Amino acid sequence: MLTQNLGYPRIGSQRELKKICENYWADKTGYKNVLQVGKNIRHENWNLQKEAGIDIIPSNDFSFYDHVLDHSLTFGAIPKRYNEVILKKGNSELDLYFAMARGYQKEGLDVVAMEMTKWFDTNYHYIVPEFYKDQPFKLFSTKIIDEFYEAKQLGITTKPVLIGPVSYLLLGKEKEAGFEKIDLIKNLLPVYIEILSRLDALDVEYVQFDEPFLTLDLTEKDKKAYEYAYKEIRKAFPRLKIVLATYFEGLGNNLALTTSLPVNVLHVDLVRAEGQLTEVLASLKEDTILSLGLVDGRNIWKNDFEKSVSIINQVVEKRGLDKVWIAPSCSLIHSPVDLDNETNEQNLSAEIKQWLAYAKQKIAEVATLKKLITNESPASTLQKLEENKIAIANRKVSKIIHNPQVKQRVLGLKEQDAARLSPFSSRKIKQQELNLPSYATTTIGSFPQTAEVRSWRAKLKNGTFTVEEYDELIAKETAKAVNWQEEIDLDVLVHGEFERNDMVEYFGEQLDGFAFSKNGWVQSYGSRCVKPPIIFGDVSRPKPMTVKWTAYAQSLTSKYMKGMLTGPVTILQWSFVRNDQPRSETCTQIALAIRDEVCDLENAGIKIIQIDEPAIREGLPLRKADWQNYLNWAVKAFKISASGVKDDTQIHTHMCYSEFNDIIQNIADMDADVITIETSRSQMELLDAFADFKYPNEIGPGVYDIHSPRVPKREEMVQLLKKAKAVIPSEQLWVNPDCGLKTRGWDETKKALIEMVEAAKEMRKAEEVLAADLQVN
């Protein structure tokens, strides 16, 4: 029996990757320093896994920004607009790579970034490959080969990890009409063959192909592509040991296809889809090794050793020890790095900490499970089993988890609690009294959190600042932001959220049922790391959370100030959620807490309230057959949070990178008065779904990309607004950035927002001229 890992966090135990990349982008450090930090992280990860007892250790799971982008660079899938970046003197392969991820605006060269979207149903974002008809591929970057050799020099023969050829194509986007991306399989496969040839020359033993699309609905053409690709790989490398990794869901109706592929090891996710085991065992070829994904790679709860051992013994009895591997359910990039870094009980109590495992601990769990089966080190291993039993039992009976009043409130919900008083057509008439102009301008909520602002929060936490000193500084920063928004003539203002650390963590810190880590960082995209709250118990709101600063900001201006909240589905999705009750139950509890906050904001005189739900599309189950059940409770949770107000209070929501076509009816069912969406990277393509549906409510399509440091010109935004107006009536349109501005700098933010406001005014003026001409005629 062997143990394997599918991937390890690449941010570093102290977020070293974030710090070095951001310094490099700011021209504060050199190229060689970036490479050295990356090398240090890789070596630390490999050695840690070796020492923990992992038999098959991955390589090529490290990335400076995104592993999908790594593959695009490897395969030479580099859009032509980056040719000038490649040719620019002094630029390295890393500069090209970052330009594809973030855009490039330097020395007269201005190139937009590639699109970004969510990795399946996680909060991780990947850079979307761009595909063209008859597109050629070539080996451009040798990263995968270099890192395998690097590990070998340390005495560790790793298992290189590749996104499988079919999944890589399915992750991308056709950038022109007249072909399907899967048609490119025959062009792409020779590059895989070349990579494998080079690895074979270095005596590679195992290669892992990640094929998560095998757990999704596939077309017949997709299935044939799988058969073709793996047949060709096997033909070229008859002795190569292929590990086929599937995760996030069960194989379902792709089971027969998957088990027919000529691979040596099949990995299945038994955390997300434990029920598939019986069918997998029945379908698996006799000589195929089964890798059991038993340790949860997506959540932070300790593995239940007794339960896992029972499953392993069941499989061993059928297949024998040598045909069974033990592993996490998926790559551990979705887990924080090391629970040992949680040393402050004010953040995380000892009672809750005993229930948790981060990536380092999950690796140890995998190794311990093997020892429990093979009876290695029996005394110390049995002690770990007893400690595990105690922790699991303690969690089940803990008094801090259950709140009868919260449960009773959920049971007492009525149908009308999830509906506004009147339909949108009636509400819109009342909301016209807000007297907002056409193409009303606003932002999504946050303004830049400078190092200085973050330092105030740190000083408050460590006791250097009193609450009064901290509040005085936040008040001044808020006033500056309000005054500046008035100066540039934004229509609906925000207070800037300077008092907030994270859009989910901030709320979780003020809700009962949540716990927080100090160092539970997880990569969201690039250098952006988040620290998801831990929902361990029933959720309720003991007191108002945002009213103080929103009401203060409103007192500074005669313009409307938006109340800014995070919605229940997003708080759920972006937290580590308790696994002892249905997610729908937890989401409804959060919805009631947000509803209380919405009502308190309205009572404080706030007329426009935004309840952000960027994660609602992300939460969709991977199989369409399971969608409706999720959408029913997710949409209902949003409506519970938003429906306690009067008709003249305008409810906004915001959604991130999402394809809306297949859930547009559900988006409409949410019944927000205004929805803002990210559309700039897709050049307003996402609006087509709203246009085709004849979406009745108001829409704010993002007119510039906040995930890139480049400052767009006014003309760009005007062109995007013209595209929007071509499909959505102008009276329904708002003007805003793609997302919040927290991660940007003030200089670029000010320049971009000034251009945005002027673009909106230009559109208004054009409409006025057109109306006057029509009146004359």
From TrEMBL:
Role this protein plays: Catalyzes the transfer of a methyl group from 5-methyltetrahydrofolate to homocysteine resulting in methionine formation.
Catalyses which reaction(s): 5-methyltetrahydropteroyltri-L-glutamate + L-homocysteine = tetrahydropteroyltri-L-glutamate + L-methionine
Cofactor note: Binds 2 Zn(2+) ions per subunit. Binds 1 zinc ion per subunit.
Protein name (Swiss-Prot/TrEMBL): 5-methyltetrahydropteroyltriglutamate--homocysteine methyltransferase
Every Cobalamin-independent methionine synthase MetE C-terminal/archaeal domain range: 440-761
Pathway the protein takes part in: Amino-acid biosynthesis; L-methionine biosynthesis via de novo pathway; L-methionine from L-homocysteine (MetE route): step 1/1
Record keywords: Amino-acid biosynthesis, Metal-binding, Methionine biosynthesis, Methyltransferase, Repeat, Transferase, Zinc
GO BP field: L-methionine biosynthetic process; methylation
Cofactor(s) needed for function: Zn(2+)
Gene: metE
GO molecular function terms listed in the Swiss-Prot or TrEMBL record: 5-methyltetrahydropteroyltriglutamate-homocysteine S-methyltransferase activity; zinc ion binding
